[in-house]
Amino acid sequence: MRTILTTLGTGRARSLRAALTALLAAAVAVGAPFYFAPFQVFQLTMVLLYAVALAGLNLLVGFGGQISLGHGAFFAAGAYTAAVMLDRYDSAHLATLPVAAAGCFLLGLGFGVPALRLRGLYLALVTLSFAVFLPPLLKRLEPVTGGSMGLTVDKLQPPAWSGLAEDQWMYLVVLAVTAVALLLARNLLRSRVGRALLALRDDESAAEVMGVRLSLHKTLAFAWSAMFAGVAGCLYTWVIGFVSPDSFSFVLSITLLAGLVVGGLASLYGPLLGAAFVMYVPSVAQDVSDAAPGVVFGLLIIAVMFVAPTGLAGLAGRARDAATRRLTRTAPAAGRTPEPAPTTAPAADPAPADAEPVGAPPRTEKE
């Protein structure tokens, strides 16, 4: 291992390791629907679409430093955009995805205006109000949204040439969209927009002095976040085939925020871990206690945050760093030959303080 690192260099070794890890993860992800049962494939599909929504929320909260409790409303907007297009206009499934993304991006731009003057708890309260009043509004627009009964649409069906089952095809399509969304989020964070968001999160005054336009980037943060949520909502309509106002209450927004915090803020892998937490932990809580699953869910969140204060992504990073330090310490010691101990003559005992020098005349009694 030490020879490989010396030959390739640290940077190339890291790139090679990242590439091999990505290929292994892609192989496992593509092969998953052919190994698990249909219900388990459905759960994995939900994890992927929740990861898209959390990736957008991570841009706003984790990297932008702004609090939002209305992310579920953008999720609902994307879901209803796809459902209305499929039910009222008989559109193709793939045609609903760009429309939902563009519509939620514009909605996020308009909603980002209050973010210019509000921050902290005041901004969180405004975003929460958006998530609270949207479900009653959807019930009022019965000619378009179907009211309280919602809309039932056809699920995305596999083509005949694929030879895949419905759940397998749905999983692979959602996996492809999720991969593109996460790659887009990664590139955004490495661009000027991402650096501006990080500067705004750390110190707005210093960022403004350096030339960062606060109004532009705060609004864009909401727009990008809403776009990712709209894409996730569109995928939700494809997978479930049914939307109703009660499916998008304000509890969804709080659950998404809790999932992001548990997964890890400002982490590229946090949305995936948080999405798995959002999907699987409520079902585990339901199995533990049918009477009070919410209590079990809350206790599990507290336990996770106690063990990993920076989220599950931070816990994995700390474990990886500890293993790297351990390998770094043991690798040089393993290749080093022990040196023989030096053989030196024993040092002579120091003369006492009152000893007479050699050749000195004998002392008399007066001395």
Automatic annotation (TrEMBL):
InterPro entries: ABC_transp_permease (IPR001851), LivM-like (IPR043428)
Transmembrane segments: 41-61, 68-86, 92-113, 120-138, 169-189, 220-241, 247-265, 295-316
Membrane topology listed for this record: Multi-pass membrane protein
GO CC term, one of those recorded: plasma membrane
Compartmental location: Cell membrane
CDD domains: TM_PBP1_LivM_like
GO molecular function: branched-chain amino acid transmembrane transporter activity
The entry's keywords: Cell membrane, Membrane, Transmembrane, Transmembrane helix
Biased composition (Low complexity): 329-367
Region (Disordered): 327-367
Designated name of the protein: Urea ABC transporter, permease UrtC
